[in-house]
Design a protein that fits this description.
By secondary structure, this protein is an alpha/beta fold. The protein has 11 helices and 13 strands. The chain has a 5-stranded mixed beta sheet, sandwiched between helices. A 4-stranded mixed beta sheet has the order 8-13-12-11, sandwiched between helices. Strands 2-3 form a two-stranded antiparallel ribbon. Strand 4, helix 4 (about 90-100) and strand 5 (about 105-110) form a beta-alpha-beta unit. The longest helix is centred in the C-terminal third of the chain and has 23 residues, at about 225-245. The relative contact order is 0.19.
Length: about 325
């Protein structure tokens, strides 16, 4: 059975740069505190009202088409991973297909938050290997800035996130030695309330009340210590699981491309995997946590820097709300 691979990647971020000093004007924080806690120096926010996750995805997809050397008309299906869709419904994948000019092409939205890109990659892989579709457009795109609490009440979360999009064209590999060698997915709802947005919610009548707004229950909340502990345990665990499934060891890995949630998490994950620091790809210092977009954005950066060549073995690892976590191994 033919393996799938990533034929090309692309990314896009808004032009508006928001530094830690900019955030310090809105809440009690500082550049030193944010960098020490997360490694983030700046992030990008949408420039104006009316820009959604599907809008950021369009230029990222166009760059992925160019990198892959394919025309948009060759795309057979769209997978759109996001926790910040343009609307509650319809899905952002449908909106993206329309904006790209791909009428009739099926679109699937994936709601696995920070693990969304790898969950989406597993679906694209299955479709390609089964012969259902030849070329799948896999996107991670987020607009966080419009849903953050920029007061002291929400500063622990607000300083972490940014807006951005990454895209990949997934298709057939030329041989069995290259492409996606393994992928592993997990979830455990025991930590659902450790990282979530409580409202609006269909379980409430009505879904959103003035009381919920007054109590800021429509903003994301995070229990940082619990999330940090789970992430630094599960990411190395699933990375090793993916390597074992592929019949490889950490010594075979050329690059680790982890989800960019927190520089401190990724440094600890790299240390627990016994990886050299120079083999770990980071971009969180410039873009913050862009959730489902972090891995394709980091891949694009690695390609631009010449860190991925023919034969490069890349290890993926992600952890996010749900809890969900995932790992994978791909040889380019």
């Amino acid at each position: 059975m033919t393996r799938s691979t990533i034929l090309g990647v692309g990314s896009y971020v808004p032009n508006k740069v928001v530094t830690n000093d900019d955030l310090a004007k809105l809440m009690t924080t500082s550049d030193e505190w944010i960098q020490q806690r997360s490694g983030i120096k700046e992030r990008r926010f949408i420039e104006e009202d009316g820009i959604g996750a599907s809008d950021l995805a369009v230029p990222a997809c166009e760059r992925a088409f160019e990198h892959a050397g394919v025309k948009k008309e060759e795309i057979d299906a769209i997978i759109f991973a996001t926790l910040s869709p343009d609307y509650n419904f319809p899905g952002s994948g449908c909106l993206l297909g329309h904006k790209l000019g791909l009428p009739g092409v099926p679109a699937l939205d994936v709601r696995n938050q920070c693990s969304g890109f790898l969950y989406g990659l597993s679906v694209a892989d299955a479709w390609v290997r089964a012969g259902m579709y030849e070329k799948v457009l896999l996107v991670g795109s987020e607009v966080h800035s419009t849903g953050l609490d920029f007061t002291d009440r929400g500063r622990d979360v607000a300083v972490l996130f940014g807006d951005g999009a990454g895209a990949a064209v997934v298709g057939k590999s030329n041989d069995d030695d290259h492409g996606l060698l393994s992928i592993c997915l997990h979830a455990d709802g025991v930590g659902a309330e450790h990282l979530w947005v409580e409202a609006p919610a269909s379980k409430h009548i009505p879904r959103l009340t003035q009381e919920m707004l007054d109590e800021a229950r429509h903003y994301p909340k995070m229990k940082g210590k619990q999330v940090f502990r789970w992430a630094t345990e599960k990411m190395p665990e699933v990375a090793n699981e993916a390597l074992e499934k592929a019949g490889l060891t950490i010594k075979d890995v050329d690059l680790l491309v982890p989800h960019q949630a927190n520089m401190r998490i990724n440094q600890l994950v790299g240390w627990r995997l016994e990886m050299d620091e120079e083999k770990v790809v980071h971009n969180i210092e410039k873009f913050g946590n862009t959730t489902a977009a972090t891995i394709p954005m980091a891949l694009d950066r690695a390609f631009q820097e010449g860190r991925i060549q023919d034969g490069t073995l890349v290890l993926y690892a992600a952890f996010g709300a749900g809890y969900t976590w995932a790992g994978g191994v791909m040889r380019f």
